[in-house]
Amino acid sequence: MKIKVEVRFKEGILDPQGQTILNTLNRKGYDFISDVRVGKVIELEIDDDIKKYDKKIEEICHSILTNPIIEDYKIIY
Amino acid sequence: MKAGVVVFPGSNCDHDCYYALSNVVEIDTKYIWHKESRLDDFDLVVLPGGFSYGDYLRSGAIAKHSPIMDAIVDFANKGGHVLGICNGFQVLTEVGLLPGALIKNRGLKFICKYVDLIVENSRTVFTSYYNNGEIISIPIAHMDGNYYIDDKGLSELIENEQIVFRYCDSKGETNDVNNPNGSVYNIAGIINKNGNVMGLMPHPERCAEKIFGGDGFYLFESIKNFFKGV
């Protein structure tokens, strides 16, 4: 089974990549786009019953995959 | 005194740090391999610049979990002196020894140039040979040097005099134009509350000799002076 972890900057933290993409989109005439946020997706493969590892996966997200000071995450089963 | 320079896979300023400590200010210095799990009896541990583990995931994020880091956190928590330069600063924030985080430069470019810094706190083990308000020139070389901390954290840094260096112009003005990477409050270097762990993005080891400007020399000399006789 595959688990996806979506990682993105917290609200209020400047996302320089998102801002650069936004500027380009607006310059190209796509002026209906008002904000762009760039994140990343990390896929974890588990060869076992996922439910057994709920807590462990939270732990991995919190302590390794993200920096809670600047990033939020969402686990997608 | 004894100093150790940690070598992670991808460290690239380890030799410069070793040279500055060992050859320039003549401190007994050894390399520390990242796979070690114990520290010898060091007085100072330096986390050097570079791209530890290719900066995969986040700068410093993988280095945080390397075998040596538990021993370094333990060493710091017991009062041992730790200096993190550039990637070393990123590792120190990731591991929680220093507050805040370092994110991508706001201009999305790798910046490699000399910058002016104003010394905000010369009453530290690492900066006693500088004067408060002194303007020094030290090179930066980074992609992720944009220091972030929330408003509450910034107030605490200011209140506790934990901000050591800020980016400025040649007259000491700290405005947005002279902020190379977008760092909150032009912060270039900070120290922990106990005063034994400092991190900075600029590279003092790259200018520890006169031929390179020499302003980095006084940082290493400050440390040597503190440990005089040890």
Ordered list of secondary-structure elements with their pairings:
The complex is a heterodimer of chains A (77) and B (230).
Chain A: E1 2-9, H1 16-27, E2 39-45, H2 54-65, E3 71-76
Antiparallel strand pairs in A: 1-2, 1-3
Chain B: E1 2-7, H1 14-24, E2 28-33, E3 44-47, H2 67-77, E4 81-85, H3 87-94, E5 101-103, E6 111-119, E7 135-142, E8 146-148, H4 151-159, E9 163-168, E10 187-191, E11 197-200, H5 217-226
Parallel strand pairs in B: 1-2, 1-3, 3-4, 4-11
Antiparallel strand pairs in B: 5-8, 6-7, 6-9, 9-10, 10-11
Folded structure, characterized:
The complex is a heterodimer of chains A (77) and B (230). Chain A is α+β, with helices and mostly antiparallel strands. Chain A has helices at 16-27, 54-65, and strands at residues 2-9, 39-45, 71-76. A three-stranded antiparallel beta sheet of chain A has the order 2-1-3, covered by helices on one side. Chain B has a nine-stranded mixed beta sheet with strand order 2-1-3-4-11-10-9-6-7, sandwiched between helices. A two-stranded antiparallel ribbon of chain B has the order 5-8. Chain B is globular. The chains are: A alpha+beta (77), B alpha/beta (230). At the A-B interface, helix 1 of A face loops of B.
